[in-house]
Amino acid sequence: CMLITAVATLFVLGVLVFVHELGHFYLAKRVGIRVLKFSLGFGPRLFGFTRGDTQYLVSALPLGGYVKLAGEEAFEEGYTAKPGDYMSCPWWGRVLMALAGPLANLVTAFLIFILLGLTGFNVPDYSTAVGRVAPESAAAGIGLSEGDRIIALDGREVGTWHGLDQMLRSEASFRTMTVDRGGVRIELPLSDSMGPGLLEGMEPAVPAQLGDIYPGLPAYQAGLNPGDIVLAVDGQPVKDWDSMRKVINHSAGRQTRLLVERGRDTLSLLITPEEQDLPGQGKVGIIGVSAPSYGTYKLRLGPVASLSNAFLYTGTLVARTYAAIYQALARPSTAKQLGGIITIGQMAGSTAKKGFGDLLNLIGLLSISLMVLNLLPLPVLDGGVIFFTLLEGIRGRPLPVRVQVVIQQVGIALLVMLMLFTILNDGKKIFNRHSAAKKNSQQMEQGR
Fold first, then answer.
1. Spatial distance between the Cα atoms of 327 and 186, rounded to a whole number of angstroms
2. pLDDT tens profile 43-72
3. Which residues are catalytic?
């Protein structure tokens, strides 16, 4: 488990940083800046070769890579720019070079989402238990009702909700549907015209049971585990996932009591749903869990659908990431939601166990985050370089060396502070989970 997490973390961080630096490397070459070193990894050199002005290296620590440009001594007294140095490049060339790293991350995410659409991505599947049935739907017309469990079509066994959908989409014409209603088998008649439209206005019954627990979020810190069943929220009984979700969505920022069944034990614990602004839903409370599933199936899209889906998904993620940053600035109290390298490692480890496709999707998500973060107009970050280089273009001359030195020092200090803050944040969340897990165990012992 630890080995998988370590390897997955190195792989994810390696791809993110390497792609970013590759963007800088490519544009530096294009605008005439000499690249002295381009390294895959950090630390001591393992092996490499030199071609032209550039040493191409493979280094010992596989955490991405780095680019070393000519003219990095630009802040030293008496420096004079030489041809091929960073500062000898026109200001617009340096802007393009700084922009290339974040854009490389954006393009990588976009291509990953296209690839996943073409090769297929995992979608959760559910049992054939029937949940909500719309009154005027075809399902209601044949007599299906909430609580039924669909067993077979014309005697052919149905295993999952997706399997039911696939059977109804086939060219076969089914005459009867067998359902289990309270332990009694009932045959319901089907007409020839009924196909996948039968599922319209009908939903699978999803129990109020927890699937994945996402690192760092309230459910994780409250010590909840996959498989826990939520019986009530603030004393209000919940019978399925949808009813539980609705109550939690309306409890943003408010301490909420959950009654949870874990095996043969019952737990009562407090949790405070975090407020998030979700597209189409507005501000809702979330605790960071997924619904339970009966496995997954591969959903493949055609070329056009994969392209349009990648455009929509990428645009949505960019907008949501900027919205999260704005919320953190407007409401500093929400900064406690920020995660660092420990959270990334936890996400990489848990995602790697699901499959390589899920790990690629995580790389796409984090690539968007890295792009947005790097484009913030802060010193040292690419956004800061772009801002001050544009300022140089407007002024017609660079900022004084002493001013640039101070700006760089301030940027480094801010970056170090942000890294320390996220590490402390991650540590606090892990401590909260261990503390909550201990209290939950004590509560179960006392209840036995």
1. 53
2. 888 898 999 888 998 888 776 778 888 887
3. 21
